[in-house]
Amino acid sequence: MTKKRKPEGRDWEAFVDQWYADNHDEKIALACLYNVSYETAKHWISESGATRKQVEEEPKMTITVPELLAMRPSVHLDFVSFDIETSNLDADFSILLTACIKPYGQPAIVFRADDYPEWKANRDNDKPITVAIANELRKHAIIVGHYSQRFDIPFFRAKMVKHGLEPLPLMFGVDTWRIARNNFKVSSRRLANLANYFDLGDKHPVEGRLWMKAAYAGAEEAMDEIVEHNIMDVDLLEQLTCISFPFLKSIPKL
After folding, report:
1. Where exactly are the structural domains of the chain?
2. pLDDT single digits (tens) 40-76
3. 84 backbone φψ class: left, alpha, beta (φ>0; ψ -120 to 50)
């Protein structure tokens, strides 16, 4: 049996969530998926100190009269698929490379750091792309992402605060990862696995070398491939959203 390394990052968070959601037999099956014994998987949990998370109550879709009056007519009452690509997983150790905002049924609006002269001169300056993304997000009412409540939105908010931008206006957020976690008993809630299982299409694999070339060398070819990856993600996300909406009980504020 080929030994598999302990999952990291978002994979690890998903593993912990699944571990505490499963019964004993399901935990054994989960360990098998990672090619390790139940005892090894249990040791991973124990060694990391990971604990059962409080079950998050789904926020209600509520809006007060002042909030309603504060909404501007320029806001489109629509939803957009949103996905970002970054050089790492934490905003203070990472830069924004690309982002896609895809209004439903329309082509993706693409943002890439190398479109801005400031980034070409100084690749730790992701303020121009952050400003451009924020300006487009402000136009829409509902932002849909996958694992977005734990990654894309907190990461992007951190960048907005860093660069002195005003917070996003009142809008709502839908996370298809959360819907999948609550409704679909599958081996993984990653977008690639859900897209494959529901026959939505194949997701491009993540290749670290491309992100390295883009972030550290500013290679245009690498950025082109990352953009292609980003566009495919929002295309798949839009299809997954259509599958997920019937299971959506409420739409929380973003």
Report:
1. 9-48, 65-247
2. 888 888 888 776 654 455 555 555 655 555 555 445 6
3. beta
